[in-house]
């Protein structure tokens, strides 16, 4: 069978061969070539030592203790800018369950393949005269054919060496849609607790890869079946078996999984997928009562706080965590045609941010489909989108006012301080009610009037403006929530 290997990779391999060394493609690139998929990266294994590799490739980088040299190429393809070459190696004990205590160079490719994680990643392809000859001492090709994820050698030994392989097994099974070998699966369940010894950043990376697959929902379920989920997002497990009210067909856990599945099928962004998975994570902690009349008052706020803690614990960036938590917090809103005014829609935009509207709607769609309803976007949501489009150019934030903080200080003749913020808050509230008031002339007049007030009185006006509830969160909404046991 003919395999397409980039010229940059062939060139590196040929250079090694001409110098008298062996050169093999190894790891994921060989697996992907056999499966007919485009490799994400290219790795070469050789019997040349790191210093010998560097002599052959002066434009290279060697900054690790694992015998891997990065050879720079002139390729425009980001995947081919650096080709990694690693000396055949053996590995000693793994005291920290992640990194070998020492690295020893091996003499043969068979020894090198024997220390790898899964059989499908332990296949080598020798490059001879620009042709590939497959070396498969661990039976990886059979497992590729039978769609099986199996460790190289004894599963418990492999997982004790590197506990991240527990997550990688689940990720490969999810990504490829394959089954995990029985003995490998049994070892994962037995040793799942070893994940606690792994850096959260590494666990996070594997979780992200699962969420980015086409079978992300099945992947989260698999993590639970393998008893891994309790060491990744234990809060999600609180929803297992937790029934909801008459407006929900599924348990909280099932609902979250189905919501995630919808976002995957729609090819939504990672942060939307994460928000869908976690949007109701706080429901078990807010549940009151049982059966069709049970309630979950305030669950969106509890879910948002839990979401931020989960993502912070997994070392996601603060920006990502805050964005997802905001979507979770904002996914619950009431809108009924004829009951909510344009001012209410403007206040909704002021609260959630114009730039977040599309993402919030996507989470809301996922929430609906995850509840078992047939339509993701009903007439009310289409009407809300129409109203948003109608008012989205209206001022909904201090930055959209016809005046700014400098104007306030100059016109009111006040120094920088809280009074400036108080005045801007009052102005924004007035403009949210009547956008036509957003003129420089009108606002300058109001600044002069507000600037004459005592600070305490001004503060009260600002707080009153800040606490004004838009129709989306008014008494009307609370009544609706009670009526529908939300």
Question: What does this molecule look like?
Answer:
- The protein is elongated and about 85 Å long.
- It has helices spanning 7-18, 28-35, 50-56, 109-113, 140-146, 155-161, 164-176, 182-191, 200-211, 216-225, 234-237, 252-265, 270-278, 283-286, 299-313, 318-330, 342-352, 357-370, 379-391, 405-412, 418-433, 440-451, 455-467, 475-484; strands at residues 23-26, 43-46, 60-61, 68-72, 82-87, 89-91, 103-105, 124-128, 131-135, 148-149, 179-180.
- It has four domains: 7-140, Beta Polymerase, domain 2 (2-Layer Sandwich); 147-232, Hydrophobic Seed Protein (Orthogonal Bundle), CATH 1.10.110; 243-394, Hypothetical protein af1432 (Orthogonal Bundle), CATH 1.10.3210; 398-471, no CATH class.
- Residues 469-486 have low confidence and may be disordered.
- Strands 3-4-5-2-1-8-9 form a seven-stranded mixed β-sheet. It has a two-stranded antiparallel ribbon with strand order 6-7.
- The protein has 24 helices and eleven strands.
- It is α+β, with helices and mostly antiparallel strands.
Topology overview:
Layout lengths: L6 H12 L4 E4 L1 H8 L7 E4 L3 H7 L3 E2 L6 E5 L9 E6 L1 E3 L11 E3 L3 H5 L10 E5 L2 E5 L4 H7 L1 E2 L5 H7 L2 H13 L2 E2 L1 H10 L8 H12 L4 H10 L8 H4 L14 H14 L4 H9 L4 H4 L12 H15 L4 H13 L11 H11 L4 H14 L8 H13 L13 H8 L5 H16 L6 H12 L3 H13 L7 H10 L2
Parallel strand pairs: 2-5, 10-11
Antiparallel strand pairs: 1-2, 1-8, 3-4, 4-5, 6-7, 8-9
Helix pairs in contact: 6-8, 7-9, 7-10, 10-12, 12-13, 12-18, 13-16, 13-18, 15-16, 17-19, 20-22, 21-23
């Amino acid at each position: 069978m003919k395999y397409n290997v980039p010229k940059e990779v062939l060139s590196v391999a040929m250079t090694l061969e001409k110098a008298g060394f062996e050169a093999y493609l190894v790891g994921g690139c060989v697996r992907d070539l056999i499966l007919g998929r485009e490799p994400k990266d290219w790795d070469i294994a050789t019997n040349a030592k790191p210093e010998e590799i560097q002599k052959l490739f002066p434009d290279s980088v060697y900054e690790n203790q694992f015998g891997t040299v990065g050879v720079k190429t002139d390729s425009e393809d980001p995947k081919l800018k650096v080709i990694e070459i690693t000396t055949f190696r053996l590995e000693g004990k793994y005291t920290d369950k992640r990194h070998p205590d020492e690295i020893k160079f091996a003499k043969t490719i068979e020894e090198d393949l024997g220390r790898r994680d899964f059989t499908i990643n332990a296949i080598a392809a020798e490059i001879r005269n620009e042709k590939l000859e497959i070396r498969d001492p661990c039976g990886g090709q059979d497992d590729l054919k039978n769609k099986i994820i199996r460790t190289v050698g004894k599963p418990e030994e492999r997982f004790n060496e590197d506990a991240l392989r527990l997550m990688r097994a689940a990720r490969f099974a999810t990504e490829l849609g394959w089954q995990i070998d029985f003995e490998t699966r049994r070892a994962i369940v037995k040793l799942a607790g070893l994940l606690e010894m792994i850096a959260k950043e590494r666990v996070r990376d594997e979780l992200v890869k699962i969420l980015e697959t086409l079978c992300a929902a099945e992947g989260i379920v698999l993590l639970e079946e393998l008893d891994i989920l309790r060491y990744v997002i234990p809060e999600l497990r609180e929803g297992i078996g937790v029934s909801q009210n008459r407006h929900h067909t599924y348990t909280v856990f099932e609902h979250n999984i189905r919501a995630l599945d919808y976002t995957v099928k729609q090819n939504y962004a990672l942060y939307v997928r994460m928000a869908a998975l976690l949007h109701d994570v706080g429901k078990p902690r807010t549940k009151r009562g049982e059966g069709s009349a049970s309630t979950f008052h305030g669950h969106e706020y509890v879910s948002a706080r839990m979401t931020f803690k989960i993502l912070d614990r997994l070392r996601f960036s603060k920006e990502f965590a805050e964005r997802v938590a905001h979507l979770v917090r904002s996914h619950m809103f009431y809108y009924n045609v004829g009951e909510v005014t344009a001012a209410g829609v403007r206040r909704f935009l002021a609260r959630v941010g114009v730039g977040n509207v599309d993402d919030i709607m996507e989470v809301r769609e996922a929430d609906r489909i995850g509840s078992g309803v047939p339509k993701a976007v009903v007439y009310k949501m289409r009407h809300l989108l129409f109203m948003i489009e109608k008012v989205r150019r209206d001022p909904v934030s201090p930055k959209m006012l016809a005046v700014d903080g400098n104007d306030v200080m100059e016109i009111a003749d006040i120094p920088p301080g809280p009074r400036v913020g108080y005045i801007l808050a009052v102005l924004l509230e007035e403009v949210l009610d009547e956008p036509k008031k957003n003129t420089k002339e009108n606002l300058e007049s109001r600044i002069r009037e507000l600037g004459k007030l005592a600070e305490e009185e001004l503060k009260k006006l600002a707080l009153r403006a800040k606490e004004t509830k838009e129709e989306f969160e008014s008494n009307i909404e609370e009544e609706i929530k009670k009526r529908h046991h939300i």
